[in-house]
Amino acid sequence: MTPYDAPLPTPERSASPLADGFGRTVTYLRLSVTDRCDLRCVYCMAEHMTFLPKAEVLSLEELDRLASAFIGLGVKKLRITGGEPLVRKGVMGLLTGLSRHLRSGALDELTLTTNGTRLADFAPELAAIGMKRINVSLDTLKPDLFRTLTRGGDVTKVLAGIDAAQAAGLQVKINAVALRDDNAGELHELVAWAHGRGLDMTLIETMPLGEIEADRTDQFLSLEDVRREFASFWTLTDLPLSTGGPARYVQVTETGGRLGFITPMTHNFCEGCNRVRVTCTGTLHTCLGQHDATDLREVMRANTDDAALIAAIRGGIDVKPKGHDFHIARSAAPAVARHMSTTGG
Ligand code: SAM
Ligand code: SF4
C-alpha cells in the first residue's frame, strides 16, 4: 500500500556506489522531514523560532522521491529526523511508502530519531511497517528539569512513548545531550535507568550549531570528563563496534548495558564517515560541521525524471569535506549558522 495517488517507482540500483573525493562510500542518509517541533530544547532552538514557509519545505512526494533516489544510489540505511519528524502531517504515510525499500531488500534499515512525545500513538504502526530500532532523545528523567530544558515539555509523555515502543517490539536507544549545569549530576542515573530497561544509551556533547539565546560555553560538558567520572565507579570496557558514525562504545559491567559517547568537540570522527544529511528543504549537507550545501529541491522541481537529481547528488557528494572544525569559544559565533533542527540531528 502506498499513501500517494500514483504508485511509487523503485529506482534501478546504480552500478557505481556513491563515493566522495576521499574514497569514503556513502551508505547512510539522514533526512529531515520538517524544521518544526513541539519542544524548544534550549541547546537546539531559540525560544521564538521562525519556521520555514510551506512552499520551501519538500512535499511528502518530494521527500519520497529524494530518499528513493539515494537508495537507488546505494544508501542502505535511512534515518528520518527533523525538527520533530512525528509532528509532520502525513509522516506515517511517507514512512509506509518508504518501507517498500525494506521489503525489496534495497534498504537494510529504516529508522527514526524522535523526541518521543507522540511515540505512544505511532509505535505500533512503526513496528508494523518493518522498523526495528529508533532513537529517542531524553536528557533527564526529572519532570521539572525536563520542562525547563525543553521549555514546556512533559516527560511523562516521552516515558509513555518509550513504553509503547518497547511493547511494540522496537529496540530503543536513548540519546542525551550532556549539559554542564543541568543534567551533569544525573547522567549516571540516566544510564543506569536505560540499561535497567534493556536500552542502549548514547551521550552527546553540545555542538555549536545555530544561534540560541544561551552561551554554549556555559553548557558544554566534555564527555572525557564524564567518562573519567563513570570509570571511578563503573567498569568500562571499550567495544570495537563501529557504525561508521561518531559514537565510541563501551560495555558497562555493573549495569550490563552498552554506552556510546559522541564527542565531536574532543574527538575527530571524520575518517570513516559514511553519512550525509538532507534538510527538509532538500539541501544536501555532506558534513554536519561545514558549510557545504547542494540544492536538490530546485533540481527536482525543474526535472520530472531523476537524471539531473542523481547528477546533483553525485556532484554534492564528490566534494564532501575531509572533516569538520568545531570549536566552542566564549562569545564566538556558531561554527555553522543552521540549527540542528534544520539540518536534522
Ligand atoms: N526532535 C528529534 C529529537 O529531539 O530526537 C529529532 C531531531 S533533534 C535535532 C536530533 C538530536 O540532535 C537530538 O538528540 C538532540 O538532542 C540533538 N541536538 C540538537 N541540537 C544539538 C546541539 N546543538 N548539539 C548537540 N546535539 C544537539
Ligand atoms: Fe525539538 Fe529535537 Fe530540537 Fe529538542 S532537539 S527542540 S525535540 S528538534
What do these coordinates show?
- The protein is of the alpha/beta class and 345 residues long.
- The protein has one domain: Aldolase class I (TIM Barrel, Alpha-Beta Barrel).
- It is built from 12 helices and 12 strands.
- Strands 7-8-9-6-5-4-3-2-1-10-11-12 form a 12-stranded mixed beta sheet.
- Helix 1 (60-72) packs parallel to helix 2 (91-98).
- The longest helix is centred in the first third of the chain and has 13 residues, at 60-72.
- It is globular and about 55 Å long.
- The structure holds S-adenosylmethionine and iron/sulfur cluster.
- Residues 37, 43-44, 81-82, 84, 113-115, 137, 175, 177, 204, 206-207, 209, 340-341, 345 line the site of S-adenosylmethionine.
Question: Can you give keywords for this protein?
Answer:
345 residues; alpha/beta; TIM Barrel; 12-stranded mixed β-sheet; 17% strand; globular; binds S-adenosylmethionine; binds iron/sulfur cluster
Q: Which stretches of 5+ consecutive residues score pLDDT under 50?
A: 327-333
* Major sheet: arrangement of strands: 7-8-9-6-5-4-3-2-1-10-11-12
In terms of DSSP E residues, the strand content is 15-25%
> Helix/strand-derived class?
alpha/beta
CATH architectural arrangement: Alpha-Beta Barrel
**Ligand types:** S-adenosylmethionine, iron/sulfur cluster
The top level CATH class name:
Alpha Beta
Number of domains: 1
Q: Count up the helices.
A: 12
Number of beta-strand segments: 12
* CATH third-level topology: TIM Barrel
| Main sheet specs | 12 strands, mixed
Shape: globular
